[in-house]
């Protein structure tokens, strides 16, 4: 009854923590969405101000140099294209097509009616925004098509202005188009790099979680299985000692549950996860648990309290843990195990050996599973080396060498 009540209490506590973390995630997503909306609003406001300024300058310039009746045509056409550019995010491809169509019609109308040559500064700026946005976000073929449409408008405006052009309008159109292309391609490259970095980080996190899950599950479940097997033998020969064996199983299960909660914590906020490092105290406790269920273990540690970086400390712990787990699985005839951790000025060396005889060629290939792969990945990620194999006599050895940072050696 007490245990059931405690389980219900822990269940309610875990449900509260899950609810709390979900609330945090929702709150972060809400703030991220609000920031994105605010950023888009700022960009839209800046563009609207730039369009309005360009339209006003163009209208005044045309009214002054041509006549007061010539400016409305270019002003209206420019306003239409600028409005399309401001709402481009909803349907970017269709917005670009509509902007180019209005631009082409405006060029033909101005050429036919002998009006001031188009597109003016405001329309050229709006078309540049459409081209740049398309090159940044649209698929490659659509982006190239939009860039080609913008170039067609520039070429058409240049041809229409040839008889009486001073070269200012064609140059302005070409510069704005090239600016849109350059900005669009630059932002597209930055976005692609950001996506690649995010994918690399996600892959790295998946590998870390895979290694953590394997290490935790393999080690603790192996301990539970060994303890259960020992309990069956004790129950047959010494029934009065069953309570102690069951207590060992309960302790191993509690350790497994705590370790799994720590790994699950990696999926939550970083502040909610337990520290990843495992010091020499945890290493001694790990060896004691193994020795209580398997062969005797002699642990040799460097003198004093090591001052290793957290990633080195964690890797030392995981190498020893995986090695002991492999001994439990594949070296049942081992009578003694030696765990040696040594340190010099430049590196930390971890060596785990057992004295189990080799029963045949099938034993050692079985040690090449995901645990050994994860161990090698951990070691090599720090620039270290891992050597595994049979000893000259009976037994198997695992030797990992981890370099220390320039200022992280022995002190």
Please give a structural write-up.
This protein has helices at 2-65, 71-86, 92-113, 121-137, 140-161, 168-237, 242-265, 280-293, 310-330, 370-381; strands at residues 296-300, 336-343, 347-354, 385-390, 396-403. The chain has a five-stranded mixed beta sheet with strand order 1-2-3-5-4, with helices on one face. The relative contact order is 0.06. It folds into two domains: 31-199, no CATH class; 278-411, 2-Layer Sandwich (Heat Shock Protein 90). The protein has ten helices and five strands; from the N terminus they run H-H-H-H-H-H-H-H-E-H-E-E-H-E-E. With 411 residues, the chain is of the alpha+beta class.
* C-alpha termini separation: 53 Å
Strand order of the largest sheet: 1-2-3-5-4
Which class best fits the helix and strand makeup? alpha+beta
> The biggest beta sheet, please?
5 strands, mixed
Q: How many structurally independent domains?
A: 2
Q: Roughly what percent helix?
A: 55-70%
Strand content: 5-15%
| Tally of helical segments | 10
Rg, rounded, reads 35 Å
The counted number of beta strands is 5
Low-confidence stretches: 1-22, 269-277, 361-368
The global form is rod-shaped
What's the mean pLDDT score?
A: 76
Describe the structure using short key phrases.
alpha+beta; 2 domains; rod-shaped; Heat Shock Protein 90; five-stranded mixed beta sheet; disordered N terminus; about 400 residues
């Amino acid at each position: 009854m007490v245990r059931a009540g405690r389980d219900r209490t822990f269940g309610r506590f875990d449900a509260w923590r899950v609810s709390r973390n979900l609330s945090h995630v929702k709150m972060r997503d809400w703030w991220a969405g609000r920031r994105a909306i605010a950023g888009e609003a700022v960009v839209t406001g800046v563009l609207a101000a730039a369009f309005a300024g360009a339209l006003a300058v163009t209208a005044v310039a045309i009214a002054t140099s041509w006549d007061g009746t010539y400016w409305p045509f270019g002003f209206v056409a420019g306003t239409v294209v600028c409005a399309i550019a401001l709402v481009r995010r909803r349907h970017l491809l269709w917005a670009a097509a509509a902007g180019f169509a209005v631009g082409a019609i405006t060029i033909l109308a101005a050429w036919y009616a002998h009006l001031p040559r188009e597109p003016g500064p405001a329309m050229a700026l709006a078309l540049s925004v459409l081209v740049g946005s398309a090159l940044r976000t649209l698929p490659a073929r659509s982006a190239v098509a939009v860039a080609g449409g913008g170039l067609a408008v520039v070429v058409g405006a240049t041809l229409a202005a040839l008889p009486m052009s001073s070269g200012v309008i064609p140059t302005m159109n070409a510069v704005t188009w090239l600016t849109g292309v350059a900005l669009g391609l630059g932002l597209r490259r930055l976005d692609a790099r950001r996506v690649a970095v995010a994918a690399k980080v996600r892959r790295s996190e998946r590998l870390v979680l895979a290694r953590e899950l394997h290490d935790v599950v393999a080690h603790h479940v192996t301990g539970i299985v060994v303890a259960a097997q020992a309990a069956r033998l004790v129950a047959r020969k010494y029934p009065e000692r069953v309570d102690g064996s069951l207590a060992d199983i309960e302790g191993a299960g509690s350790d497994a549950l705590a370790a799994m909660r720590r790994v699950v914590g990696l999926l939550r906020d970083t502040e909610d996860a337990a520290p990843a490092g495992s010091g020499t105290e945890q290493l001694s406790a790990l060896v004691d648990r193994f020795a209580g269920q398997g062969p005797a273990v002699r642990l040799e540690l460097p003198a004093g309290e090591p001052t290793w970086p957290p990633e080195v400390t964690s890797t030392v712990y995981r190498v020893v843990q995986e090695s002991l787990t492999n001994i439990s699985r594949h070296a049942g005839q081992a009578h003694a195990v030696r765990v040696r951790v040594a340190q010099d000025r430049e590196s930390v060396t971890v060596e785990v050996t057992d004295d189990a005889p080799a029963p045949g060629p099938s034993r050692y290939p079985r040690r090449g599973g995901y645990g050994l792969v994860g161990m090698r990945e951990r070691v090599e990620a720090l620039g270290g080396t891992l050597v595994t194999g049979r000893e000259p006599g009976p037994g198997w050895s695992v030797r990992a060498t981890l370099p220390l940072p320039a200022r992280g050696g022995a002190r």
